Amino acid sequence: MTETADELSAPLGQTEKRRRRRIRLPFTALQALAMLLGLFLVVFAGFAMFSDNPLGGEPVARIAINEGAKPDDKAAKPEAKPDAKAEHGAAAKPEGERKTVTIIDGSSGARQEVAIGAGGEAAEPGSAAPASQMPGVDPRLLEKSRYGMIPVMADGLKPFTAYAADADRAKAARMPAVAIVIGGLGVGAAKTVDAIMKLPPAVTLAFTPYGSDPTKLAERARAQRHEILLQVPMEPYDYPDNDPGPQTLLATLGPDQNIDRLFWHMSRLQGYVGIGNFMGARFVATEAAMQPIVNEAAKRGLALFDDGAAPRSVAASLATGRAMPFAKGDVAIDAVPTSVEIDNALAKLESLAKERGVAVGTASALPVSIDRIGTWIKGLDRKGILLVPLTTAMLKSKSN
Question: How many alpha carbons lie under 13 Å from residue 181 in its C-beta half-sphere?
């Protein structure tokens, strides 16, 4: 009874718990998310428009190096800063008398070693140490760049002439001739050695600047009397999804930057007769980008080779304008790397040589390619066709 009286006498609403007042925001969660996304896009667009980064996001390593360091002075050894970084991340570690920086690709996790010489020179990603002078290389035909020794003309002598392989040019002028260029060498010592040792000296070998020691392999090729080319990585249309490698020449870079990259490639090995493209369908079709490279090669007494893979290439017209030795690949021998298709491509090369007087075939150092090309070469004499080095084919094309 008392409880009932208390309830009746209590003020209305005093026994009820007060409801908490809900805070209302002026926008919904979906609207907030949309605003954050819009802010991110504005910041990203501003960075893309106003950031001064002509390299377009290529990996770059920044390393602090003490010049004039002595190998026996631990305090003076070149050291990478703890925060030394590449775009994909980097870490430094000692390696005896040298140091290396490990560049780690953030998307794939791939690791790449960058060697830093004890004398204070840092090798670029994907390279061996700068090449020392190779045996048989004329020191007069070398000049020093910031990356190492690169070819140059001297006293009227050109690298094209000095390093061309021996050939019976009088005979080549009288009969159909074919030249074979095996490309992509230097990366993969086993396949490179196969090409050097299993194919005759008249086959021209083209080296990329990459690999653990392209200098030593190029030296071995020249010792076997092959003439050699330097393949310069150039920008394809689908770059960077399809990336030729570090220091690729890009159509978006200025002439000075591309020539500096060209010097980097030129310093990796010596004794080559000329340069050729490694990939590069976009670059070789862009006259403003290609012309400074052709001019530099001509000035240094080098030949120019176009592998023929890019229909819109301007290499031929630019080389003609500089009156420099030039050749273009006519047949990609192992575009389809089967024995039957390779044999068909070689038959096409024969027909072109008989029709035009000279033809050039290109191939890679696949085992099936080396095997079929080697067998085919043995039967050329009875077909009345002469195998010649690329330099001889260039000279014959020019005279024709």
Answer: 35
pTM of the entire structure?
Answer: 0.69
Nearest CA to 359 out of 339, 337, 333, 335 is that of: 333
- Alpha carbon distances (Å) from 201 to 20, 279, 387: 93, 25, 10
Residue 363 has pLDDT above 70, yes or no: yes
- Structural domain containing residue 69: 59-125
Which CATH number belongs to the domain containing residue 187 in this structure? 3.20.20.370
More confident residue, 279 or 13: 279
Give the 3-state secondary structure of residue 346. Answer: helix
Express each pLDDT in 190-224 by its tens digit: 999 999 999 999 999 999 999 888 999 999 999 99
Per the structure, how many domains does the chain have? 2
State the DSSP code for 141: G
* 258 and 154 within one domain: yes
Last residue of a domain, one of 73, 94, 125: 125
DSSP code per residue over 257-278? HHHHHHHHHHTT----SEEEEE
Residue 304's SS3 state is strand
Whether residue 171 sits in one domain with residue 255? yes
Query: pLDDT tens digit string along 153-185?
Result: 999 999 999 999 999 999 999 999 999 999 999
